């Protein structure tokens, strides 16, 4: 889900107050600006700014890539309809991706989870109950990750909503230890947020965000979920087609990429 970071907290407080006064403001402001400035009016950041990446250099925001390579990621699955659709689209374009799965959804759809692995994509831990790290105590958060790790054997982790406390980050290795006994985990954030979860956004708007902001090495977030379906199912095939025509390849994230090829 969308990233709202503590560092833009004041701006969000002002924006939320204005929206409470006039709920139509969000739509009006979004349409009032050209695409490069539009994300400034949103409740989330479509493009992760450089200073945020610089403040959290231990997290993976983007991969340093010598050629035309992008890294697609899908959060919140497995989902009975959306995940098979995504797998089909990726196969059409010989693209690989990374799926940050929710533990309870893996338990509900073990066959779909297995299909992701069988197709050669990578998976990552997205907690068991999609917890917001800012809203729960560290021990609750870490044990939820540990529960998910019994099903998702991966050293890759993405915090739901992009929200994790520094104290939780420090203990992440411990929580993921059963899944990754021999390696340190990598926390994967993103460079481009498709905003497919935003039900106020049109499918065309979602596509334009992704096409405008994606660059070589971008880590792009989509969601294989019911909420994102209308926008994701429209934007994903079109963006795959677009970047494939431009000669881009899509690869899945793995620990080697993440530890040796971080880029700011
Ligand atoms: Zn999520």
Topology readout:
Layout: H1 9-21, H2 25-32, H3 35-38, H4 50-55, E1 69-75, H5 82-92, E2 97-101, H6 103-108, H7 110-118, E3 122-125, H8 138-149, E4 156-157, H9 166-170, H10 172-176, E5 186-187, E6 192-193, H11 203-213, E7 219-223, H12 229-245, E8 249-250, H13 255-260
Parallel strand pairs: 1-2, 1-7, 1-8, 2-3, 4-5, 6-7
Helix pairs in contact: 5-12, 11-12
Overview of this protein structure:
Helix content is 43%, strand content 11%. The longest helix is centred in the C-terminal third of the chain and has 17 residues, at 229-245. It has one domain: Glycoside hydrolase/deacetylase (TIM Barrel), CATH 3.20.20. The strands form two sheets. Strands 1, 2, 3, 6, 7 and 8 form a six-stranded parallel sheet that branches. A two-stranded parallel sheet has the order 4-5. The chain is globular, with a radius of gyration of 18 Å. The protein has helices at residues 9-21, 25-32, 35-38, 50-55, 82-92, 103-108, 110-118, 138-149, 166-170, 172-176, 203-213, 229-245, 255-260, and strands at 69-75, 97-101, 122-125, 156-157, 186-187, 192-193, 219-223, 249-250. By secondary structure, it is of the alpha/beta class. Helix 5 links the parallel strand 1 (69-75) and strand 2. The chain starts with 8 loop residues before the first helix and ends with a helix. The structure holds zinc ion.
Q: Look at the structure and give the mean pLDDT.
A: 84
Note the gap between the termini: 22 Å
Question: Domains counted in the coordinates: how many?
Answer: 1
Give the CATH level 1 class.
Alpha Beta
User: What does the largest sheet look like?
Assistant: 6 strands, parallel
Query: What's the helical proportion of residues?
Result: 40-55%
By DSSP (H or I, 4+ residues per run), the number of helices equals 13
What is the CATH-assigned architecture?
Answer: Alpha-Beta Barrel
Class from helix and strand fractions = alpha/beta
CATH level 4 superfamily: Glycoside hydrolase/deacetylase
CATH fold assignment: TIM Barrel
Secondary-structure element string: HHHHEHEHHEHEHHEEHEHEH
Instruction: Give Rg in angstroms.
Output: 18 Å
Sheet-strand content, in percent, reads 5-15%
Q: Give unreliable regions as ranges.
A: 1-33
- What gross morphology would you assign? globular
Q: How many beta strands in the DSSP annotation?
A: 8
Ligand inventory reads: zinc ion
């Amino acid at each position: 889900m969308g990233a709202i970071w503590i560092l833009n907290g004041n701006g969000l407080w002002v924006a939320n107050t204005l929206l409470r006064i006039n709920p139509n403001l969000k739509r009006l402001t979004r349409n009032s600006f050209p695409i490069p400035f539009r994300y400034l009016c949103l409740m989330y950041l479509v493009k992760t700014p450089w200073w945020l990446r610089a403040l959290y250099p231990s997290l993976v925001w983007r991969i340093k890539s010598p050629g035309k390579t992008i890294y697609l990621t899908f959060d919140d699955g497995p989902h009975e309809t959306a995940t098979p659709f995504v797998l089909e689209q990726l196969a059409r374009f010989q693209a690989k991706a990374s799926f940050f799965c929710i533990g309870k959804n893996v338990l509900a759809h073990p066959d779909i989870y297995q299909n992701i692995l069988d197709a050669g994509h990578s998976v990552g831990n997205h907690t068991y109950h999609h917890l917001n790290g800012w809203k729960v105590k560290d021990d609750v958060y870490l044990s939820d990750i540990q529960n998910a790790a019994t099903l998702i054997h991966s050293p890759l982790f993405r915090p739901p909503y992009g929200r994790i406390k520094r104290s939780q980050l420090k203990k992440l290795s411990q929580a993921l230890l059963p899944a990754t006994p021999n390696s340190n985990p990598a926390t994967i954030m993103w460079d481009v947020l498709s905003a497919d979860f935003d039900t106020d956004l049109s499918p065309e708007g979602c596509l334009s965000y992704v096409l405008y902001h994606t660059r070589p090495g971008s880590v792009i977030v989509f969601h294989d979920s019911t909420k994102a379906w209308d926008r994701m199912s429209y934007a994903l095939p079109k963006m795959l087609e677009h970047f494939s025509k431009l000669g881009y390849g899509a690869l899945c994230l793995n620990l080697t990429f993440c530890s040796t090829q971080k880029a700011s």
